[in-house]
Amino acid sequence: MKRVVITGAGTINALGKTVPETLEAMREGRCGIAELEFRDVDRLTIKIGGQVKGFEPDAIFNRQQLTLYDRFTQFTLMAAHEAITQSGLVFGGELAATTGVVLGTAGGGVSTWDDNYRSVYEDGKNRVHPFVVPKLMNNAAASHVSMQYNLKGPSFTVSTACASSNHAMAQAFAMVRSGMSRAMVTGGSESMLCFGGVKAWEGLRVMSRDACRPFSANRNGMVQGEGAGIFVFEEYEHARARGAEMMAEVIGFAMTSDAADIVMPSKQGAARAISGALADAGLGRERIGYINAHGTGTAANDKTECAAVADVFGTHADKLLISSTKSMHGHLIGGTGAVELLACIMALRDGVIAPTIGYEEPDPECALDVVPNEAREVAVEYALSNAFAFGGLNAVLALKRV
Amino acid sequence: MDVETRVRNIIAEQALLDPEEVGMDSTLESLGLDSLGLVESLFAIEEAFDINIPFNANNPEDSDFDISSVATIVMGIRRLLVEKES
Hints:
The structure holds 2 protein chains of 2 kinds. By secondary structure, chain A is an alpha/beta fold. Chain A folds into 2 domains: about 5-240, 3-Layer(aba) Sandwich (Peroxisomal Thiolase, Chain A, domain 1), CATH 3.40.47.10; about 250-400, Peroxisomal Thiolase, Chain A, domain 1 (3-Layer(aba) Sandwich). In chain A, about 35% of the residues lie in helices and about 20% in strands. In chain A, strands 5-4-6-7-1-8-14-13-9-10 form a 10-stranded mixed beta sheet, with helices on both faces. Chain A has a two-stranded antiparallel ribbon with strand order 2-3. A two-stranded antiparallel ribbon of chain A has the order 11-12. In chain A, α4 (about 70-85) runs parallel beside α8 and α12 (about 265-280) packs across α13 (about 300-315). Chain A starts with a strand and ends with a strand. By secondary structure, chain B is an all-alpha fold. Chains A and B meet through loops of A and α2 of B.
C-alpha cells in the first residue's frame, strides 16, 4: 500500500477566497455568516448564510465560460487553480493518464435549476438556453477541472448529501493508496444559496435564524454556506522525489451506512465510521488529538455525534479536542468536508486548533472540549474529520502530521 | 435592422468575430462554430426573432431548416417569419 500526502489545497468560502485567508479567519475565530443577498430573499424566513461575497465571476471567466459554469463550478475551478498551482504538478504523459478528479456535491447546479425554472414557470418563457443541462449536471465541476488540467484518469462526482466531499476524498485516497493513481484531485463544492435552495431547506425546520452554535445548549439549528475545497492527493514517494511541500498525510478512512432513517442520525453508524477510520489507519484511539466535528448546530446531530465520540474514545474523549468550523463558514452541504479538512491541516501542520465560535452555554449532552470561541495552540499528530449525511451515510477521514 | 444584418451580428457574437467577417456564403464550421456554438446561435436567433427553429442536431439533413450557410439560415428565418405573420 502506498502512502498518500496532500501537496496542494485551494478554497473559496465565506471566510476567504484562498487557503491562507480562510486559515487566518479560522485562527481569529471570525464569523463569515451574514445577511443573504440574492433575488427574492425577502420571501424567505431564513435570511442568513455563509455566502461568498465580493466574488465577481465576470472579471474571472469569459462569456463563453460563464454560459457553461454554474456557480458551484466557478467555485470549484477557483479552488482547483489554487490547489494545483500550489502542488506544482503539471499533468502530461503517464501522470495525466492516471490522475483523475473525484469531487463531492449534493446539489450541483442548483442556481441554474432555480433560474431556469423561474424563467419557464414564473416568467412564462417557453425556451431555455441550450447549455442548461451541461451547466447544472452534478459532474460539471469535475469535468471542467479534468478538461482544464488535462486529467485523463478516473473522474466522477459523489453525491451523498452532507458527506459528499468526505466520500469523494476517501475514494481518491483509496485510489492513490492502492497504486491505481499517482495523484488525484479531490474535494467538493456547493452553491445552494439561491431562493429555491434555501426555501427547500426551510421546509425541514432545522435552520437557525440567527447563528450556527454547535454544541452550545442554546443552539437552534444549522446555517447554510457555500464554496469549494479542492486538494491534490499524491503518492508519497512521487511527492518526495520532486521535493513537493507536504501539508499533511492521509492515513485512513471508513464509510458506514446507518440503514435506519432518512434524516435522523444514528450514534452507532457514526461510531462505526469513527472506529473504522482508526482501524484502517492502524491507530489506537488515544493517539487522536483533534477531531473536526460534523457539528451542524442541530439538536439531533450534535448530541448524537458527541455520544458517538464518547463511545469510541472512552476516557480519551475528555482529552481530545473537537470543534466545528461550521460556526464560521456555515454548512457547505456537499462541499463541507472539503473546507473542513483545512482545519485538520491547520491543526496538524501549524498546531492551531480552529474554534467553535458562537458557543454560549455548556450542554451536558455535549460535554467535550469543543474549543469554544477562541483558537488554541496545541501540537497535534493525528486528526479525524467527521461527516454524517442525511440518508445515514457516514464518512470519516484520518490524517497525520508530516 | 434587416434579418440578414441581425443574423450576421448574432453569429459574429457567438463566433467572436466582427460582423463584417461573417459572409452570406460562410458556413458555421468555417466561422469556427462547434456543435455547442451552433445550438447557442440557434437559441440566440430564436430569442431575437421570437420564432421556433425546427432543427434537430441528430439529423441536420432531415431537419426542416437548412443551416449549410449563413444565407440558407437567413432564408429559413424569413420563411418562419412569414409563417408567423400568417
